[in-house]
């Protein structure tokens, strides 16, 4: 029995929650997958998978074995990738996590050019606004906006900046009093991004002066594109990134307020950060992706920081 192949088939079966799904992922016959799992269990003398006519579930022994098998497969894949990474051209799989709206609008339109430049690069992109666990979710590089999480086992490098803008539709401003100063926002319907629980404060800074404005409103969302839609529909005032609303402001669909102030929610910053594991320092795959970011229009990037 090819033990490494058996481990891979076992892990895929657990992930896919069934023999047929795992077989499709691996381009194998379902009968081959079941026979290999039978042989693996016989070799170990333990039941790894509970089988029924409706589903396949992992046993207690199988759950423990899965964790170790996953680590072995990841270590083999990383060893292969690091050797391949020594060449001049990025080779192998690169798993990248991007913020949803930022990834869709600012990065996705240019990914085809990256793949055309590096045909041996296998790119997998996940969109999420959550902070991902790079190790457990097998992510090589995570791009985050705002204050990056402080983790002992993760390298966080600032690679660029953006600017947040207070925006409202002209029609909303016609119906309501125009806020002349940041503190006037306390009397307006403010559409807020979900940053957990508690009171949200927009912090304005200008020439060393800082003004903190507790904002309120009847709508919150964890997606900036949804907030943009609400602002466009004349519902209220929002704090949104420039890469999302620059065209709307230029076309006159939105009005930018307090442009002589810099503003961020709570203690967040306007940084763009790259997060990766310490063993990925020097990775040509990560370096190529960060170089690619530095070439596309949009926020101000500082270029490759992984090398």
From TrEMBL:
<dbReference type="Pfam" id="PF03466">
    <property type="entry name" value="LysR_substrate"/>
</dbReference>
<comment type="similarity">
    <text>Belongs to the LysR transcriptional regulatory family.</text>
</comment>
<keyword id="KW-0804">Transcription</keyword>
<dbReference type="GO" id="GO:0043565">
    <property type="term" value="F:sequence-specific DNA binding"/>
</dbReference>
<keyword id="KW-0238">DNA-binding</keyword>
<dbReference type="InterPro" id="IPR036388">
    <property type="entry name" value="WH-like_DNA-bd_sf"/>
</dbReference>
<dbReference type="Pfam" id="PF00126">
    <property type="entry name" value="HTH_1"/>
</dbReference>
<dbReference type="InterPro" id="IPR005119">
    <property type="entry name" value="LysR_subst-bd"/>
</dbReference>
<dbReference type="InterPro" id="IPR000847">
    <property type="entry name" value="LysR_HTH_N"/>
</dbReference>
<dbReference type="InterPro" id="IPR036390">
    <property type="entry name" value="WH_DNA-bd_sf"/>
</dbReference>
<protein>
    <submittedName>
        <fullName>Transcriptional regulator LysR family</fullName>
    </submittedName>
</protein>
<dbReference type="GO" id="GO:0003700">
    <property type="term" value="F:DNA-binding transcription factor activity"/>
</dbReference>
<keyword id="KW-0805">Transcription regulation</keyword>
<dbReference type="GO" id="GO:0006351">
    <property type="term" value="P:DNA-templated transcription"/>
</dbReference>
<dbReference type="InterPro" id="IPR058163">
    <property type="entry name" value="LysR-type_TF_proteobact-type"/>
</dbReference>
<feature type="domain" description="HTH lysR-type">
    <location>
        <begin position="1"/>
        <end position="59"/>
    </location>
</feature>
